[in-house]
Amino acid sequence: MSAGSLDAEHTMLLIVDMQNDFCKKEGALYSENSEKIIPSISRLLEVFREAGAPVGFTQDWHEPDDVEFGRWGPHCVEGSWGAEIVDELAPLEMELVFKKTRYSPFYDTDIHEHMLDLEIERAVVCGTLANVCVLHTACDMMMRGVDVVVPVEAVAALSDYDMGYALYHMGEVFTAHICSVDEIGLQ
Description:
By secondary structure, the protein is of the alpha/beta class. The protein has helices at 20-23, 32-36, 38-51, 69-72, 111-117, 130-143, 160-173, and strands spanning 11-16, 55-60, 96-100, 122-128, 147-151, 155-156, 177-179. Strands 1, 2, 3, 4, 5, 6 and 7 form a seven-stranded parallel sheet that branches.
């Protein structure tokens, strides 16, 4: 599979957790690395929108007493500013948004049904964090028979080690195509 020759009809862009709490300085779990990838994701979003290809977003979404807060602290509380997708990447009305309570949107959402309905064969997965939600999302897609493409400039991690681990795991264990944003085109 060449990243440059993706079929627009059967390829989805899935943007993972690009929310204020992760990407903005005032956010509860802000990471400068997450903020830095916004322009690269914006470029991908433009390519997919211009081609009329499917676009989806995951949105970390927690009740105020979520068990996950024991590990990460409160973040992306339902209805809060922190839970909103960053303005620079705001979904259009027809684009899909999957509110998720765990690392992968395949837990307790209808993402799989939507992907089947749209006949998605491959997905370009980007966002934050590479070694947490991006990794689990990509792996769950691969286990459901979806080819995954991961553009390195459009994923973020807290450290180089975390990024290396995530890219290795997605590429070597789950055979995702690791590439550059510039290699991705649709036909």
